[in-house]
C-alpha cells in the first residue's frame, strides 16, 4: 500500500480524492498487476492559491522517479499551467538513489525537499514543501510491476506485508464524496460472523475504530456524539413530562457495540433495558475490545440475539405486554443508491417500514413513550428525501410532531448525521401549535427544558457531547433543510 504524507510550510493539504487512488493502487499491487508508472501526478492545494500539479515522471537520472521534464507540452499534459510555473522546473529529488530500493522495500521512507511552482507573482511567495514519501504512488506502481519472488505481496489476512497502516474510507458516490480514517495494521480484532466481517482497528487520533464489512461504524473518539444523543434525548424528553417516573423500561434495537446501553445506565430511573441485536459476532467483538464492554453485565440489561423487527412484532401482538417508556432504534442504513439512480434496499430496510413503525407506536402508546431512530444525513439528496418520508410516516401513524435533530460527527459521511424523535402522545399541545408555543421559554415540543437541565445536573452530568442546550439546539436546522423536511 502506498502512503504519501505532506508536511507543508505553506498550507497545502492532501486532497480527499487521493484516498481512493491510494486504495486502488494498493489493490493493483496486491493482485500483482503492473500499474502505470510513467505519468503519475499528485494534486496539491495551497491556501490562497489555485490548484497545482506535481508530475512524477521517471527519467534517466532516477529510474523510479525521474527528473522534472522541461518540455512545456508535457508540463501542460501533466496539468501544470505554464503561466503558474517557474521558468526553471524544480530539480529532481535529492535522494533518487534511495528510490532504487523501492521494489524490494515497499515501506521505505524517503525525505526530500523540492519547490512547488505556484505563481510568478512577486507578492505571492513560493511554497516549499517537505515531501515525506512512504512508498510513493510512482514507486508503488514500479513495485507492483516487479513483485519480489521471495515474498508474497499479501499475508494470510489479506494485508500487504511490510505495510503497517490502511485507510477505512467512506464513499458517497451520489455526491462524489470520499473521506477516510487511517488505522494501524494488523487489526486489533477480526471475526467473520454469520452476517458480516467484524473488525476493530486502532488509530492514533480516533482510538479504537469499529468496522463492519469495511464500513466504519464508530470510533472511540467521536462515538459519544452519536450515542449520547440517542440515549439522553429520548430519556430526558420523557422524564421532563413525567418527572416522578422512577421505573423506566427501555427497548434498544440494534446498537450491537453497546454504547447506547452504557449511556442509558447512567439514568438511575432506568429499571430495565431489552437490547435486541441481530449479530452475535458484533457483541462478541465489542465485549472484548471496546471500552464500554461492561454494559451488558448490568442486571438491568436483558440481551436478546435476534431480529429486531420480529421481536417488535411479537411484543406488540402480546396483549399482556405493558409496553416501553422509550424505544431507541440504532439501525444501519436502510438503502443505498445504485448506478441507475434507484434505491437498493438493504436488510435493515424492514426497520423503516410503516408496518414496523406502527408496531413501535403500539408498544409506546400505553406509556405515552418516546421514540428515536437513526435518520441519516441531510447532505445527501436521497437521504433528505427519505428523512421527509419517514417523518410523514411517523406523523400519519399517530406520533406527535416528529422532529429531525442533527449531530456533528467527524467520521460519518459529510461530518453530520441525524435522528428523528417523536412522542407517542403529546399532553402539552396539538400538532398545529406545538412548534411555536414555547410557554415563556419553558416548554417546546412538549418538553420542559428547565426540568431537563435540572435532571441532567442531578443525574447524568458526566457526558462528552450531550448537554441540554445542545439537545434543544439540535433541532435548529439550516433553512433549506428545514424547508425540505417540514414543508408539504
From TrEMBL:
Highest taxon listed in the record's lineage: Eukaryota
Record InterPro entries: PABS, PABS_CS, SAM-dependent_MTases_sf, Spermi_synthase, Spermidine_synt_N, Spermidine_synt_N_sf
Domain PABS residues, every copy: 165-424
CDD domains xrefs: AdoMet_MTases
Organism: Thalassiosira oceanica
Gene3D superfamilies attached to this UniProt entry: Spermidine synthase, tetramerisation domain, Vaccinia Virus protein VP39
Gene Ontology MF term list: spermidine synthase activity
PANTHER family: SPERMIDINE SYNTHASE, SPERMIDINE/SPERMINE SYNTHASE
Catalytic-site annotation from UniProt: 330
Keyword Transferase applies: yes
Gene Ontology CC annotations of this record: cytosol
Gene Ontology BP annotations: spermidine biosynthetic process
Pfam families assigned to the protein according to its UniProt record, in alphabetical order: Spermine_synt_N, Spermine_synth
Stated family: Belongs to the spermidine/spermine synthase family.
Keywords: Polyamine biosynthesis, Signal, Transferase
Protein's UniProt name: PABS domain-containing protein
Signal peptide: 1-27
Amino acid at each position: 500500500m502506498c502512503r504519501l504524507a505532506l508536511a507543508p510550510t505553506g498550507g497545502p493539504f492532501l486532497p480527499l480524492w487521493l484516498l481512493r487512488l491510494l486504495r486502488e493502487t494498493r489493490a493493483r499491487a496486491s493482485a500483482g498487476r503492473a500499474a502505470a508508472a510513467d505519468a503519475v501526478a499528485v494534486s496539491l492545494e495551497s491556501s490562497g492559491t489555485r490548484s497545482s500539479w506535481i508530475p512524477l515522471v521517471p527519467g534517466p537520472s532516477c529510474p523510479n522517479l525521474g527528473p522534472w521534464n522541461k518540455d512545456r507540452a508535457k508540463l501542460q499534459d501533466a496539468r501544470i499551467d505554464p503561466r503558474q510555473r517557474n521558468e526553471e522546473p524544480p530539480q529532481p529529488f535529492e535522494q533518487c538513489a534511495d528510490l532504487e530500493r523501492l521494489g524490494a522495500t515497499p515501506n521505505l521512507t524517503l525525505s526530500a525537499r523540492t519547490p512547488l511552482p505556484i505563481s510568478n507573482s512577486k507578492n505571492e511567495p513560493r511554497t516549499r514543501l517537505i515531501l515525506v514519501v512512504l512508498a510513493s504512488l510512482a514507486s508503488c506502481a514500479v513495485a507492483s510491476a516487479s513483485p519480489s519472488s521471495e515474498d508474497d505481496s499479501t499475508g494470510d489476512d489479506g494485508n500487504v506485508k511490510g505495510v503497517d497502516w490502511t485507510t477505512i474510507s467512506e464513499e458517497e458516490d451520489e455526491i462524489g464524496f470520499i473521506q477516510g480514517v487511517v488505522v494501524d495494521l494488523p487489526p486489533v480484532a477480526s471475526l467473520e460472523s454469520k452476517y458480516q466481517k467484524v473488525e476493530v482497528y486502532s488509530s492514533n487520533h480516533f482510538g479504537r475504530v469499529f468496522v463492519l464489512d469495511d464500513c466504519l461504524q464508530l470510533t472511540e473518539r467521536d462515538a459519544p456524539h452519536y450515542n449520547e444523543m440517542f440515549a439522553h434525548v429520548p430519556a430526558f424528553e420523557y422524564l421532563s413530562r413525567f418527572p416522578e417516573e422512577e421505573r423506566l423500561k427501555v427497548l434498544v434495537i440494534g446498537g450491537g457495540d453497546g454504547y447506547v446501553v452504557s449511556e442509558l445506565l447512567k439514568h438511575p430511573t432506568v429499571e430495565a433495558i431489552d437490547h435486541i441485536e441481530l449479530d452475535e459476532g458484533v457483541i462478541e467483538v465489542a465485549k472484548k475490545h471496546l471500552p464500554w464492554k461492561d454494559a451488558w453485565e448490568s442486571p438491568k440489561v436483558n440481551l436478546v440475539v435476534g431480529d429486531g423487527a420480529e421481536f417488535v412484532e411479537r411484543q406488540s401482538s402480546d396483549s399482556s405486554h405493558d409496553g416501553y417508556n422509550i424505544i431507541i432504534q440504532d439501525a444501519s442504513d436502510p438503502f443505498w443508491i445504485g448506478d441507475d439512480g434507484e434505491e437498493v434496499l438493504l436488510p435493515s430496510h424492514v426497520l423503516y417500514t410503516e408496518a414496523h413503525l406502527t408496531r413501535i407506536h403500539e408498544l409506546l402508546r400505553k406509556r405515552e413513550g418516546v421514540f428515536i431512530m437513526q435518520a441519516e444525513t441531510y447532505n445527501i439528496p436521497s437521504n433528505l428525501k427519505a428523512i421527509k418520508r419517514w417523518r410523514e410516516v411517523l406523523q400519519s401513524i399517530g406520533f406527535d410532531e416528529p422532529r429531525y435533530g442533527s449531530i456533528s460527527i467527524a467520521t460519518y459521511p459529510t461530518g453530520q448525521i441525524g435522528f428523528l424523535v417523536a412522542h407517542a402522545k403529546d399532553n402539552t399541545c396539538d400538532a398545529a401549535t406545538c412548534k411555536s408555543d414555547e410557554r415563556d421559554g419553558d416548554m417546546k415540543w412538549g418538553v420542559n427544558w428547565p426540568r431537563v437541565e435540572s435532571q441532567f445536573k442531578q443525574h447524568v452530568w458526566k457526558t462528552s457531547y450531550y448537554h441540554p442546550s445542545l439537545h434543544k439546539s439540535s433541532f435548529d436546522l439550516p433553512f433549506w433543510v428545514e424547508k425540505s423536511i417540514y414543508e408539504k
